[in-house]
Protein backbone atom coordinates (compact mmCIF):
# COMPACT_ATOMS: atom_id res chain seq x y z
CA UNK A 1 0.00 0.00 0.00
CA UNK A 2 2.72 2.49 0.95
CA UNK A 3 4.88 4.02 -1.77
CA UNK A 4 8.42 5.21 -0.95
CA UNK A 5 8.01 8.04 -3.46
CA UNK A 6 5.65 9.80 -1.02
CA UNK A 7 7.42 11.55 1.87
CA UNK A 8 5.12 13.05 4.49
CA UNK A 9 6.45 16.20 6.19
CA UNK A 10 6.22 15.88 9.97
CA UNK A 11 6.04 19.62 10.60
CA UNK A 12 4.93 19.34 14.23
CA UNK A 13 6.75 20.20 17.45
CA UNK A 14 6.58 17.18 19.73
CA UNK A 15 7.20 13.44 19.67
CA UNK A 16 3.61 12.94 20.89
CA UNK A 17 2.30 14.79 17.81
CA UNK A 18 4.56 12.63 15.62
CA UNK A 19 3.29 9.42 17.22
CA UNK A 20 -0.34 10.50 16.76
CA UNK A 21 0.13 11.22 13.04
CA UNK A 22 2.29 8.18 12.30
CA UNK A 23 -0.24 5.90 14.06
CA UNK A 24 -3.09 7.53 12.15
CA UNK A 25 -1.38 7.11 8.76
CA UNK A 26 -0.36 3.55 9.62
CA UNK A 27 0.76 1.36 6.72
CA UNK A 28 -0.24 3.98 4.14
CA UNK A 29 3.01 5.92 4.64
CA UNK A 30 6.54 4.52 4.74
CA UNK A 31 8.66 7.69 4.41
CA UNK A 32 8.73 10.75 6.67
CA UNK A 33 10.52 14.08 6.61
CA UNK A 34 11.85 15.64 9.80
CA UNK A 35 12.34 19.40 9.47
CA UNK A 36 13.70 22.17 11.62
CA UNK A 37 10.75 22.77 13.93
CA UNK A 38 10.59 19.11 14.92
CA UNK A 39 14.33 18.39 15.17
CA UNK A 40 15.07 21.60 17.08
CA UNK A 41 12.39 20.88 19.68
CA UNK A 42 12.29 17.08 19.88
CA UNK A 43 15.86 16.11 18.85
CA UNK A 44 17.15 12.77 17.53
CA UNK A 45 14.66 10.74 19.60
CA UNK A 46 12.20 11.24 16.74
CA UNK A 47 14.59 9.47 14.37
CA UNK A 48 14.84 6.53 16.79
CA UNK A 49 11.04 6.33 17.02
CA UNK A 50 10.59 6.31 13.22
CA UNK A 51 13.31 3.70 12.82
CA UNK A 52 11.60 1.48 15.39
CA UNK A 53 8.50 1.78 13.21
CA UNK A 54 10.55 0.76 10.12
CA UNK A 55 10.00 4.08 8.41
CA UNK A 56 12.45 5.77 6.04
CA UNK A 57 13.64 9.21 7.04
CA UNK A 58 14.54 12.37 5.14
CA UNK A 59 16.28 14.72 7.61
CA UNK A 60 15.57 18.14 6.11
CA UNK A 61 17.84 20.51 8.05
CA UNK A 62 19.14 22.34 4.94
CA UNK A 63 22.69 23.00 6.17
CA UNK A 64 24.20 26.25 4.89
CA UNK A 65 27.61 27.30 6.21
CA UNK A 66 31.30 27.13 5.30
CA UNK A 67 32.54 23.80 3.86
CA UNK A 68 34.20 22.54 7.06
CA UNK A 69 31.21 23.32 9.29
CA UNK A 70 28.70 21.74 6.91
CA UNK A 71 30.71 18.58 6.35
CA UNK A 72 31.38 18.11 10.08
CA UNK A 73 27.71 18.78 10.84
CA UNK A 74 26.68 16.15 8.31
CA UNK A 75 29.10 13.64 9.87
CA UNK A 76 27.37 14.17 13.24
CA UNK A 77 23.92 13.74 11.68
CA UNK A 78 24.95 10.72 9.62
CA UNK A 79 25.38 8.64 12.78
CA UNK A 80 21.61 8.75 13.39
CA UNK A 81 21.03 6.55 10.35
CA UNK A 82 18.72 8.52 8.05
CA UNK A 83 18.12 7.77 4.35
CA UNK A 84 18.41 11.32 2.96
CA UNK A 85 19.77 14.60 4.33
CA UNK A 86 20.54 17.93 2.70
CA UNK A 87 22.44 21.19 2.28
CA UNK A 88 21.70 24.42 0.42
CA UNK A 89 23.18 24.42 -3.10
CA UNK A 90 23.69 28.18 -2.74
CA UNK A 91 26.50 27.30 -0.32
CA UNK A 92 28.46 26.73 -3.55
CA UNK A 93 30.44 24.05 -5.32
CA UNK A 94 33.29 23.81 -2.80
CA UNK A 95 30.92 23.39 0.12
CA UNK A 96 28.90 20.69 -1.67
CA UNK A 97 32.01 18.83 -2.91
CA UNK A 98 33.68 18.93 0.52
CA UNK A 99 30.49 17.65 2.12
CA UNK A 100 29.95 14.85 -0.41
CA UNK A 101 33.58 13.69 -0.17
CA UNK A 102 33.65 13.89 3.64
CA UNK A 103 30.48 11.89 4.27
CA UNK A 104 31.63 9.14 1.90
CA UNK A 105 35.00 8.90 3.68
CA UNK A 106 33.29 8.91 7.07
CA UNK A 107 30.77 6.26 6.00
CA UNK A 108 33.62 4.05 4.82
CA UNK A 109 35.35 4.45 8.18
CA UNK A 110 32.12 3.57 10.01
CA UNK A 111 31.43 0.76 7.57
CA UNK A 112 27.91 2.08 6.85
CA UNK A 113 26.03 3.03 3.69
CA UNK A 114 26.14 6.87 3.48
CA UNK A 115 22.75 8.62 3.39
CA UNK A 116 21.82 10.22 0.07
CA UNK A 117 23.01 13.82 0.14
CA UNK A 118 20.85 16.28 -1.80
CA UNK A 119 20.96 20.04 -2.35
CA UNK A 120 18.13 22.56 -2.06
CA UNK A 121 18.09 24.68 -5.24
CA UNK A 122 15.56 27.54 -4.91
CA UNK A 123 12.88 27.27 -2.21
CA UNK A 124 9.46 26.38 -3.60
CA UNK A 125 7.86 29.27 -1.69
CA UNK A 126 9.83 31.76 -3.79
CA UNK A 127 8.12 33.47 -6.76
CA UNK A 128 9.70 35.57 -9.52
CA UNK A 129 9.01 38.81 -7.61
CA UNK A 130 10.72 37.54 -4.43
CA UNK A 131 13.57 36.43 -6.64
CA UNK A 132 13.97 39.84 -8.35
CA UNK A 133 13.71 41.63 -4.99
CA UNK A 134 16.85 39.74 -3.94
CA UNK A 135 18.75 41.32 -6.84
CA UNK A 136 18.63 38.32 -9.16
CA UNK A 137 18.29 39.00 -12.88
CA UNK A 138 17.88 35.44 -14.16
CA UNK A 139 14.73 33.31 -14.07
CA UNK A 140 14.18 30.97 -11.11
CA UNK A 141 14.01 27.97 -13.45
CA UNK A 142 17.36 28.85 -15.04
CA UNK A 143 18.97 29.17 -11.62
CA UNK A 144 17.47 25.87 -10.47
CA UNK A 145 18.93 24.01 -13.45
CA UNK A 146 22.28 25.72 -13.00
CA UNK A 147 22.40 24.76 -9.31
CA UNK A 148 21.25 21.19 -10.08
CA UNK A 149 24.11 20.77 -12.58
CA UNK A 150 26.57 22.19 -10.06
CA UNK A 151 25.22 19.86 -7.36
CA UNK A 152 25.67 16.88 -9.65
CA UNK A 153 29.23 17.92 -10.52
CA UNK A 154 29.99 18.26 -6.79
CA UNK A 155 28.87 14.67 -6.16
CA UNK A 156 25.39 15.27 -4.75
CA UNK A 157 22.88 12.45 -5.17
CA UNK A 158 20.11 14.81 -6.18
CA UNK A 159 18.28 18.05 -5.49
CA UNK A 160 15.23 19.58 -3.87
CA UNK A 161 13.30 21.67 -6.38
CA UNK A 162 9.79 22.56 -7.43
CA UNK A 163 7.87 19.97 -9.46
CA UNK A 164 7.60 22.64 -12.16
CA UNK A 165 11.37 22.39 -12.75
CA UNK A 166 11.64 18.60 -12.63
CA UNK A 167 11.52 18.11 -16.41
CA UNK A 168 14.42 20.49 -17.02
CA UNK A 169 16.48 18.99 -14.20
CA UNK A 170 15.91 15.48 -15.48
CA UNK A 171 17.08 16.56 -18.95
CA UNK A 172 20.15 18.33 -17.57
CA UNK A 173 21.21 15.80 -14.91
CA UNK A 174 20.16 12.44 -16.33
CA UNK A 175 18.19 9.52 -14.96
CA UNK A 176 20.36 8.59 -12.00
CA UNK A 177 19.62 11.73 -9.98
CA UNK A 178 17.10 12.24 -7.16
CA UNK A 179 14.58 15.03 -7.71
CA UNK A 180 12.74 15.59 -4.45
CA UNK A 181 9.83 17.96 -4.84
CA UNK A 182 7.94 19.84 -2.14
CA UNK A 183 5.31 22.31 -3.38
CA UNK A 184 2.99 19.44 -4.30
CA UNK A 185 -0.72 20.18 -4.06
CA UNK A 186 -3.61 17.91 -5.04
CA UNK A 187 -6.07 19.81 -7.27
CA UNK A 188 -8.26 22.15 -5.22
CA UNK A 189 -6.19 22.08 -2.05
CA UNK A 190 -4.87 25.12 -0.23
CA UNK A 191 -1.57 26.45 -1.62
CA UNK A 192 -0.51 27.93 1.78
CA UNK A 193 2.89 29.67 1.48
CA UNK A 194 4.04 27.65 -1.56
CA UNK A 195 4.44 29.34 -4.97
CA UNK A 196 5.81 26.95 -7.59
CA UNK A 197 3.40 24.06 -7.25
CA UNK A 198 2.06 21.09 -9.20
CA UNK A 199 -0.26 18.15 -8.55
CA UNK A 200 1.14 14.78 -7.43
CA UNK A 201 0.50 13.30 -10.89
CA UNK A 202 2.17 16.20 -12.70
CA UNK A 203 5.19 16.08 -10.37
CA UNK A 204 5.78 12.41 -11.21
CA UNK A 205 5.14 12.91 -14.91
CA UNK A 206 7.73 15.72 -14.87
CA UNK A 207 10.34 13.34 -13.45
CA UNK A 208 10.23 13.80 -9.67
CA UNK A 209 11.52 10.78 -7.76
CA UNK A 210 9.98 11.78 -4.41
CA UNK A 211 7.08 14.04 -3.44
CA UNK A 212 7.23 15.85 -0.10
CA UNK A 213 3.72 16.60 1.12
CA UNK A 214 2.82 18.11 4.49
CA UNK A 215 -0.26 20.23 5.07
CA UNK A 216 -2.51 18.65 2.43
CA UNK A 217 -2.24 15.46 4.53
CA UNK A 218 -1.68 16.73 8.08
CA UNK A 219 -4.39 19.38 7.96
CA UNK A 220 -6.96 17.15 6.29
CA UNK A 221 -10.02 16.11 8.28
CA UNK A 222 -8.93 12.51 7.70
CA UNK A 223 -5.15 12.42 7.07
CA UNK A 224 -5.12 8.72 6.16
CA UNK A 225 -7.85 9.19 3.55
CA UNK A 226 -5.97 12.21 2.15
CA UNK A 227 -2.76 10.17 1.90
CA UNK A 228 -4.56 7.26 0.23
CA UNK A 229 -6.12 9.60 -2.33
CA UNK A 230 -2.69 11.03 -3.15
CA UNK A 231 -1.24 7.51 -3.44
CA UNK A 232 -4.01 6.57 -5.86
CA UNK A 233 -3.26 9.64 -7.98
CA UNK A 234 0.45 8.71 -7.95
CA UNK A 235 -0.24 5.14 -8.97
CA UNK A 236 -2.44 6.22 -11.87
CA UNK A 237 0.07 8.85 -13.00
CA UNK A 238 2.69 6.30 -13.98
CA UNK A 239 0.37 4.02 -15.97
O1 LIG B 1 12.03 24.32 -1.32
C1 LIG B 1 11.54 23.74 -0.34
C2 LIG B 1 12.28 22.96 0.52
C3 LIG B 1 11.66 22.32 1.56
N1 LIG B 1 10.34 22.44 1.77
C4 LIG B 1 9.73 21.69 2.91
O2 LIG B 1 8.74 20.79 2.41
C5 LIG B 1 7.61 20.78 3.25
C6 LIG B 1 6.39 21.17 2.47
O3 LIG B 1 5.26 21.18 3.30
P1 LIG B 1 3.80 21.55 2.77
O4 LIG B 1 3.01 21.62 4.03
O5 LIG B 1 3.38 20.43 1.85
O6 LIG B 1 3.87 22.87 2.09
C7 LIG B 1 7.92 21.70 4.43
O7 LIG B 1 8.38 20.90 5.49
C8 LIG B 1 9.06 22.58 3.94
O8 LIG B 1 9.98 22.90 4.95
C9 LIG B 1 9.60 23.21 0.94
O9 LIG B 1 8.36 23.37 1.11
N2 LIG B 1 10.23 23.83 -0.12
Automatic annotation (TrEMBL):
Molecular function terms from GO: orotidine-5'-phosphate decarboxylase activity
This protein's GO CC annotations: cytosol
Record keywords: Decarboxylase, Lyase, Pyrimidine biosynthesis
Pathway this chain belongs to: Pyrimidine metabolism; UMP biosynthesis via de novo pathway; UMP from orotate: step 2/2
Active-site annotation: 60, 62, 65
Binding residues for substrate: 11, 33, 60-69, 124, 185, 194, 214-215
Top class in the EC scheme: lyase
EC numbers on record: 4.1.1.23
Record family assignment: Belongs to the OMP decarboxylase family. Type 1 subfamily.
Name the UniProt record assigns to this protein: Orotidine 5'-phosphate decarboxylase
Organism: Schwartzia succinivorans DSM 10502
GN (gene name): pyrF
